[in-house]
Amino acid sequence: MNNIIIKYFKGELSQDERLELLRRMDEDTALKAAFVRHQQMLALLELAPVEGDEGKARTKYGIFMDERRRKSVRRRLTRTLHYAAVILFMTVGTWSAAYLYFSTDKNADEVMQSLYVPAGQRVSLTLADGTVVWLNARTKLTYPSTFHRDERQVSLEGEAWFDVAKDTKKPFVISSGDMKIRVLGTSFNICHYPGETSACVSLVEGSLQLYAHENDHKGVYLRPNDEATVAGRKISVTKIPNPQRFLWTKGIYSFENESIGNILKKLELYYDIKINVEDATILQWRYTVKLRQRDGIREILRLMQQIHKFKMTIDEENNTVTITK
Predict the structure, then answer these.
(1) Which residues is 182 bridged to in the sheet?
(2) pTM value?
(3) Are 167 and 152 in contact (CB under 8 A)?
(4) What is the mean pLDDT of each run of 10 residues along the chain (325 residues)?
(5) Are the CB atoms for 137 and 270 separated by under 8 Å?
(6) Which of 57, 186, 205, 312 has its CA 20 to 30 A from that of 30?
(7) Is 144 in contact with 153 (CB distance < 8 Å)?
(8) 14: CB partners within 8 A, 6+ apart
(9) Per-residue CA distances from 31 to 11, 21, 93, 101, 104 (Å)
């Protein structure tokens, strides 16, 4: 097994080395296959690193790899991995265990890269200007390796948290569908998944100007604690109802007086699983709850059962959950 993959999962690579490995996987199918097999093995052994438990995970992982080298248990692992596709969806990794997709457009004025985060994962990335970005599940960010133009331009599909490095000479511009956001130095969250009827921009610190579409020359200015909902060409601004919602960057999903229907939609997105609700009256239930990403879909639903009693059936073969009274 490639030693660099082992070092990746033991947390022994720098951020630049991790990103370089993930970029190489886009061109090397054998490396990509080895990485995925290793990630599945860790998930099955419950050794995937999680925030707050990195030291313990690294120690257990090192012991396991040493024993594996001595005893050569390849055939046993092969049999175990046969069931990985069924079990893996119930496990949750953090950014350090994510499988990412990078692509490069070398014909552009700036070398553009695309980073895609699959379901059940999140990733942190520092851009060339020092801007820190957290990307949620099923999110794609396209960005240049360096910023040469008068504006620092990136594009987004999905949900992301931005801590934009201040540069008065080069505004930071984010395009997301028809929507455009222009800032200098700001902390804010964007949620705009393809296919959704609306987008949400929540400003925590600084200021920004939001344009609903490319022909909008005026836009709307947001101040701290403002949240804008964009539906078509209409922008409505309110105050952020639940600031703890942004704890997703730390692996915590926070819901405040939210319908179970909305919560289940988000869990489907985060864990790449289909959740069916057979009794429509269940959708009227509301929750105020915090859920840990690393607990996985089964434990999260069990916790929700303690608040409202319901039955659930998990079909691992078809990757679905059915909820009934």
Answers:
(1) 173, 209
(2) 0.67
(3) yes
(4) 72 74 71 67 44 47 50 44 36 40 54 83 90 93 91 95 94 94 93 89 94 83 95 92 92 92 89 90 92 87 92 89 93
(5) yes
(6) 57
(7) yes
(8) none
(9) 18, 9, 20, 13, 18
End-to-end CA distance of the chain: 48
219 Cβ contact list (under 8 Å, min separation 6)? 180, 182, 209, 210, 211, 212
**3-class DSSP string for the chain:** CCHHHHHHHHCCCCHHHHHHHHHHHCCCHHHHHHHHHHHHHHHHCCCCCCCCCHHHHHHHHHHHHHHHHHHCCHHHHHHHHCCHHHHHHHCCCCHHHCCCEEEEECCCCCCEEEEEECCCCCEEEECCCCCEEEECCCEEEEEECCCCCCCEEEEEEEEEEEECCCCCCCCEEEEECCEEEEECCCEEEEEECCCCCCEEEEEEECCEEEECCCCCCCCEEECCCEEEEEECCEEEEEECCCHHHHHHHHCEEEEEEEEHHHHHHHHHHHHCCEEEECCHHHHHCEEEEEEEHHHHHHHHHHHHHHHCCCEEEEECCCCEEEEEC
Instruction: Give per-residue burial for 168-177: e unless 16+ CB within 10 Å, then b.
Output: eebbbbbbbb
Structure tokens at 103: 């692509």
CA angle 206, 169, 221 (to 5 degrees): 35
